[in-house]
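Many introductory courses stop at the sequence. We go one step further.
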Amino acid sequence: MFMGCDISQDSFNYCLRNASGIILNGKVENTATHIRKWISALKKEHGLDLSQVIFCMEHTGIYGLILIRVLHERSHHVCVESAANIKLSLGLQRGKNDKVDAQRIAEYAMRYTDRLKQWKPKRAVIEKLQLLNGMRARLLKSRNILSSHTNEVKRFMGKAEYEILKKGTQASLNGIEKNIKDIDKQIQALIKSDENLTRLTRYVTSVKGVGMVTCSAMLVRTNEFKDYPDAKKFACTAGLAPFDHSSGKSIRGKSRVSHKAHKDLKTLLHMCAVNCIGKKGELKDYYDRKVAEGKNKMLIINAVRNKLVHRIFAVVRDEVMYQKNYQYNLVMS
């Protein structure tokens, strides 16, 4: 049986179904107490064997954490799927409400049982690292909003008005800058406190151009490089892999990267690539050579980003520090 859960901030709708059709549906408040009562009612009042039920829900960030944790505590089967996957897999849909969405999630779970992956919790240290990364990203966004606005209006204001604006935002900018530095220290301390994270960070940051911020983001996104078997799959997730754009005789477009990607990772890797091609080295030589050949500059930068990703995954896979002139040791039989 398949339980579809459509989760919002205060409550969630559920729909239980099997191959014959819908068995139950309803609504539950999104609190640990109400969820535990709901699970007990499913067992006692409806006589359900919950070991035979797959609970499926969309990834809704923090809204689904309570339900996931309660279900995981009881060792139930939990699957957290991308909302885009569910929406695109069911064909043309008309209308939308929470009750219908729960039914659609249950239908998706039933149709694509072979694709579902059981949710497993990340280590506590990774959860904390993810929290710190999120805090840092929000602080950076706030800093950029304040500073960019102040710089943009400078040439349109009189000196006295501009000084009032600058003075009013400077204290906030200084506070944000201090908070960012504090979080950077916490991230470094957290990584140093864990043996596996320290080891992985040593390998990743040995690749020229890759710093602690990018490394920290990759550790979280890849779940310590456990969730991605190779560099190509990660490149696809980060929006670096080009795909063909052609069909029949009429469409002959250039290969392009997909916008369905984690843009935060793409931005960080872009900054790493720009840093590499701005300094002397083989990647700058590669960039200059391709520009001289007439290649599109953004295409070349994307190639550099892919090179960095492949290098990162290679050093993690082989558990070695990056070596510019690495030589394979051939085993002679």
